[in-house]
Structure formats: C-alpha cells, structure tokens
C-alpha cells in the first residue's frame, strides 16, 4: 500500500523517526516544519495522508485542519500532540481530524494507525465508482457515501469526517439503536486516548446541523442507557396516529 504522505513536524528528530518508519513501509514522504508549509504542500501534492503535529510555528495543527476542512479537502489527518487532555483531543476531532495520538507514542502503533487510515480512505475511493445510486435515506435526510454529501430536505449540510462516519453508519439501518461503543469503533477503532464523550460531542454537533430544534431532537434520538438511533420523524408521527 504505497502512499504519498506529508509529515508536518517541527521537531527534527521526531520528523526523521516518522519519515524512516513510513519509508520502510514503502511510502513516499515529504517533511515540512511549520503549519503554513503543511497547507501549501497539501494543496500542491494532494497527499493520501497528512501526519500533523499540533504545536508548530506559523500556524498550529488545529488551524491547519480548520483551513483544510473549510476548503473541503478530504485528506485523512492523523494528529500528533504532547497535549493529552480530553478537551484537546475532542477539539481536534471536532475540527475534522481523523485520528489522534499523544506523545510519547509507539512507532509501531503509529504505523498501525497509518495503515488503518489509508485502508479506510481507499475503500471510500473504490466505493465512489458510479455504478449505482448508493445514497442512504431516512425521510428527508440523505447521506451519499459516494459523494461524501449530506442533505436535509434538499439543504446541503457540511459535516466533519467523524460526523459523516457516524451518520453514514446509522443511516444504513434507520431505527436501529447504536451503542456508543459501536459508534466509537466506527470512528476510530480501539483508541485508548479517547472516551465515549467523543461520540456525544459528534452527536451534539450533528443535531445542530440536521435538527430543526437541536434541544428537542426528532431525527437523532437518545435511547437512554443504550445509545442513539436515527429515525424518520414523519414516519414516527404517522405510526403514532
């Protein structure tokens, strides 16, 4: 699985370590030392993966992710940071990072995360071949995995990669109750650095985007003590009549 990877890391020793491991696995690697250079390289090279340190000069990693997602660039982002508080991790994921590792980390675990992200992105690319309409529908909500698009009643909704994965998973089986553990696995697989609150944050943000009244959700419902489910409010109302 040879990929084009950009490593944005201002610590030269860390950058060299990551570069060696990536090249050992057959990847082509470009190393940059600040956030603005990372943005320029992503725009120029359109890489398969960005390995991004948070604390960098000129623009930090969070700003880099914010800009990339605002430009609708779907490059997978694996963030590296010395910060380990839950709020920092959730902020990175909420902005659109795909995975997060805290320093110090095991290089072998880092490579495992890289392989997982590359497999996911390539499965998505294969799925984008226009063989048929693969859009998932739950009433007025439409999730299109091929185009990575979400709409409600014809209105386009911008979602982060994490939000999209949760919504796409739930849209495959409307009215099924998904546990927080199941949704966390859909997001990142096993990650010892992130709690179930990650899922709750994504659900809260999704409600702001797809619900007419986020504090009184009608589509993305909480099943207390179990998890969440996606439902069609119009069909639920007709059943109640």
Gist of the model:
With 241 residues, this protein is of the alpha/beta class.
User: Can you give the helix content as a percent range?
Assistant: 40-55%
Radius of gyration, taken over Cα atoms and rounded to an integer in Å: 19 Å
Strand arrangement, major sheet: 2-1-3-4-5
Q: Quick one: how many beta strands?
A: 12
Regarding quaternary structure, how should these chains be classified? Answer: single chain
Strand content: 15-25%
Describe the global form: elongated
Measure the end-to-end span: 54 Å
Order of helices and strands: EHEHEHEHEHEEEEHEHHEEH
Structural class estimated from helices and strands: alpha/beta
Residue ranges: pLDDT <50 for 5 or more in a row?
126-132, 189-193
**How many helices?**
9
| Rounded mean pLDDT score | 83
Biggest sheet descriptor: 5 strands, parallel
Domain OmpR/PhoB-type: 133-232
Keywords: DNA-binding, Phosphoprotein, Transcription, Transcription regulation
Organism: Streptomyces pulveraceus
Pfam family, one: Trans_reg_C
């Amino acid at each position: 699985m040879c990929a084009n990877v950009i490593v944005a890391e201002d610590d030269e020793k860390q950058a060299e370590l990551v570069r060696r491991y990536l090249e050992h696995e057959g990847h082509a690697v470009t190393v940059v030392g600040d956030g603005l250079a990372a943005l320029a390289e992503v725009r120029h090279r359109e890489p398969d993966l960005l390995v991004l340190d948070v604390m960098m000069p000129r623009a930090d990693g969070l700003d880099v992710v914010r800009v990339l997602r605002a430009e609708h660039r779907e490059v997978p982002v694996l963030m590296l940071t010395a910060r380990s508080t839950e709020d920092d991790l959730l902020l990175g994921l909420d902005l659109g990072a795909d995975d997060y590792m805290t320093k110090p980390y095991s290089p072998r675990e880092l490579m495992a995360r890289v392989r997982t992200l590359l497999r996911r992105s390539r499965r998505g690319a294969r799925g984008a071949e226009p063989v048929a309409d693969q859009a998932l529908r739950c009433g007025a909500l439409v999730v299109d995995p091929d185009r990575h698009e979400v709409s409600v009643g014809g209105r386009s909704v911008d979602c982060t990669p994490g939000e999209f994965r949760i919504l796409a998973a739930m849209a495959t089986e409307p009215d099924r109750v998904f546990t927080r553990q199941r949704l966390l696995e859909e997001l990142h697989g096993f990650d010892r650095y992130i709690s179930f609150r990650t899922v709750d944050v994504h659900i809260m943000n999704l409600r702001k985007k797809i619900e007419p009244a986020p504090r009184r959700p009608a589509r993305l419902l909480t099943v207390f003590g179990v998890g969440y489910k996606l439902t069609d409010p119009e069909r639920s109302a007709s059943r109640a009549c």
